[in-house]
Amino acid sequence: MQALTNRAKAVDRRPMTFMEKLYIPAIAKGMTITFKHIFHRKATVSFPEKKRDFSPVFRGLHILNRDEEGRERCTACGLCAVACPAEAITMEAAERKPGEENLYREEKYAARYEINMLRCIFCGFCEEACPKDAIYMSETFAPANYQRKGFIYGKDDLLIPDPKEGK
Amino acid sequence: MTLLSIDWFFIIEKVLLISGVLVLSLVVAMYSTWGERKIAAWIQDRLGPNRAGPMGLLQPLADGGKLFFKEEIIPNTSNRFLFILGPSIAMLVACMTSAVIPWGDTLTIAGREISLQVADVNIGILFIFGVVSMGVYGIMLGGWASNNKYSLLASVRAASQIISYELPMGLALIALLMMTGSLSLKDIVEQQRHGLWNVVYQPLGFFIFLVCAFAECNRAPFDLPEAENELNGGYHLEYSSMKLGFFLFAEYINMFISSALMATMYFGGYAFPYMDKLGVDGNILTLLGFLALFIKTLGFIFFFMWVRWTVPRFRYDQLMRLGWKIMIPLALVNMLITGALVLARQH
After folding, report:
1. Confidence (pLDDT) at B2
2. What's the rounded Cα separation, in Å, for the pair B30 and B32?
């Protein structure tokens, strides 16, 4: 029979020699290996004190962006919801009223915008689909919660703080 | 009247010594659990316990405290008296062996010579064997009194393992005794102090003794009675709280005592090379000797742990075959060769 790969190795089925039957050399070899491991670098990260760095392309929790004047960028076009393979995003659109120009950038905005973090697979398609640069993925992950509904993130969880309010 | 006069200093001295040895073995056993976990972690490229106190040094206290506050369960169908007797015997026997080990030479305090040995009996090794073979009663009683088939089977396995390995252990020791000509551990150490260590004369005997010590202490690769990841805890299946703690603790004390024994009988005990040419004498030399014995003992404890985290567990038939078909003949051959050499040297 031809092997599928050239990685296959035939098992040595010869009877053990006397030295092998003694087991002592094999045990000594194993013990040198374990002894060397005592001085190896440890793989453990002491978590709360030390945190492992994320990779630069890490895709974490979503944020909803604002423009330079602090107005919400999202226009509730629904492209992110369409692009989402896990169907984690739902939204409701509303029309901007006169006098709200300082709140929303365009005439239409998202009155309700929810992402279910339990459904989300963090693929980043929403980020790519957004024509208004409104949704981005940050470098944090969803903290644990006691209830499922705690994982449905609304606008107040997702929207970044208004840069003007801080001043 | 002289018969009734009691040497109070003698009694105080011995009480202090006994409590010292007891505290020492308990503390060492306590920190062996910590050391065991640390060494296991290091060998597996982990950090080990590091939350309780600096370097996790308070971990044994936390574990002990946990065991004390656990619910104490005595099964309804068990034999209550024997159920409690089991771990008590295990613990008692583990603590008794240390009595005949010479922890050091003599200290001179206020003109009194105080030997750092609780009892220098002339049948020291025999005493140890007698006491150690009582240890199997703790396991047997514990397993049987639980009235649980798993415990019973595990304790039967434990008993047959310990009895099987006592034979080659004894045979290996007989070879040593033929050389030293004394059963007193103090004499054996004194002989090594002025000559070479016994391991040089008895390498095979030491090896057999070492392997049997592993089996006697129920340590990996011979930890079949317990086999924590295969059986339901073995003979201490039904035990909880500090009674379980006693069984586990007795294992660590046994490990400490057998390490001390091996250091005493084969590695010179409290004697270390050039100790009589060091220029210091008296109490300082005694303390240095104690330190030497302690370091040797810790080395053996490390070895015990190192082996545990390297070698996989034996199968039961392999264990028995190793004991009866390999260890005993080897020990007999060792005895024969030693006997021949001793005879040849006499003529």
Report:
1. 59
2. 5
Select the residue of B47, B50, B311 nearest A30 (Cβ to Cβ).
B311
Residues of A in contact with B47 (CB under 8 A): 42, 44, 46
Partner-chain contact A34 B309, CB within 8 Å: yes
> What confidence tens digit (pLDDT) does each residue in A61-103 have?
999 999 888 899 999 999 999 999 999 999 999 999 988 888 8
A61-157 placed in CATH 3.30.70.3270: yes
Q: Do B46 and A30 touch (CB under 8 A)?
A: no
Q: What is the ipTM of this complex?
A: 0.80
Quick check: is B3 in a domain?
no
**Burial of B238 from C-beta contacts in 10 A (0-12 / 13-18 / 19+):** buried
pLDDT given at position A28: 92
For the stretch B138-171, pLDDT in tens is 888 888 888 888 888 888 888 888 889 989 998 9
Cβ(A55)–Cβ(A152) below 8 Å = no
User: Is B71 within a domain?
Assistant: yes
Residue B195, in any domain of the structure: yes
Is some CB atom of chain A closer than 8 A to the CB atom of B208? no
Beta strands in chain B (DSSP E): 106-109, 112-115
